[in-house]
Design a protein that fits this description.
Elements lengths: L1 E4 L3 E7 L14 E7 L1 H11 L4 E7 L4 H9 L7 E3 L5 E7 L5 E6 L8 H7 L8 E4 L6 H10 L3 E5 L5 H7 L5 E5 H11 L10 E5 L5 E5 L4 E5 L12 H14 L4 H15 L12 H6 L3
Parallel strand pairs: 1-4, 1-8, 2-6, 4-5, 8-9, 9-10, 10-11
Antiparallel strand pairs: 2-3, 6-7, 11-12, 12-13
Helix pairs in contact: 1-7, 5-6, 7-8
């Protein structure tokens, strides 16, 4: 089972002809609201990939719709609490080429208590996976508790913060980050990805695919991305991570799990939206780019 300590956001989408420059005002061509947050996206992706995934998080009194949506997608929502803080949200600007810029308001995502975390992991075992990102509080505390329980600890290093990553590095079994984040981490630590104290490091490279470093063996393997025409890259990395963890939770070897995750991420960029359009396992298996 996957326990995901993660954000839950209302994603507010604005379609623009191009991303705004400093001082520029643009009229949006369309607007929509959807379920999002890196944590929620990953939980939905893991659940839609066939894994049992329990989401650890919080929403405000205005967030009941988000919890209901997660439940509809197969996520175990019993560990989500209601906070006095407002539900987090993300302002997402998407240009005509599918690139995006995002502004986050954390809200309830950073209102979890250590008691909430302790209760959430009270039934977890060494057979389970713990996943977190950098959109909530208690990442280090969660990784410490999970590691003490013998769980496999995975971290998606986004939004990137060098100190947050550095704090959890000694506790990680799996680190997922993109090419820019890998460069930022190397600049902060002075260590290349293949020398980090983490058994498995997976670097997503967008249209170029991804790279897997296994630091136990010193092996590095590159994976080509399926060729698609992107319309919206929002949530593609989260979809990749959720599918990757689901594959590992189901006992797949890393290379096979990465291959499945690559297909899911590629299919995701052909769709507009985030959690609400993450493909299910049947779609991914049938996908032939």
């Amino acid at each position: 089972m996957i326990y995901n300590l993660g954000s839950i956001n209302a994603d507010l989408f604005y379609a623009l002809p191009h991303l705004p420059q400093p001082g520029e005002t643009l009229a949006s061509q369309s607007f929509s609201r959807g379920l999002g947050g890196k944590g929620a996206n990953m939980s939905v992706a893991a659940a839609r990939a066939g894994a049992r995934c329990a989401h650890i998080g919080a929403v405000g009194a205005d967030g009941a719709w988000a919890v209901q949506r997660l439940m509809e997608y197969g996520v175990d929502t019993r560990l989500i609490r209601t906070s006095e803080e407002a539900t987090g949200h993300a302002l997402i600007l998407v240009d005509a080429a599918g690139e995006n810029a995002i502004v986050l308001f954390p809200g309830a995502n950073r209102a979890l208590s250590e008691m909430d975390l302790a209760l959430a992991l009270s039934e977890a075992t060494a057979a389970d996976i713990f996943l977190c990102q950098n959109e909530t509080n208690l990442q280090l505390e969660g990784a410490e508790r999970a590691s003490a329980l013998g769980m496999r600890v995975a971290y998606a290093a986004a939004p990137f913060d060098a100190e947050a990553v550095r704090a959890v590095l000694p506790l990680l079994d799996l680190l997922v980050l993109n090419e820019v984040e890998a460069r930022q981490l190397e600049a902060a630590t002075g260590r290349a990805a293949d020398t980090l104290p983490v058994r498995d490091v997976v670097i997503t490279l967008g249209a170029k695919g991804c790279r897997w470093h296994n630091t136990d063996t010193g092996a590095t393997q590159d994976f080509a991305a399926p060729k698609v025409t992107p319309v919206d890259t929002t949530g593609a990395g989260d979809t990749f991570t959720g599918y990757l963890l689901a594959g590992l939770d189901r006992g797949m070897p890393m290379a096979q799990a990465i291959g499945l995750a690559q297909k899911a991420g590629a299919l995701m960029v052909t769709r507009h939206g985030t959690a609400d359009v993450i493909p299910d396992l049947k779609e991914v298996q049938a996908f032939t780019p």
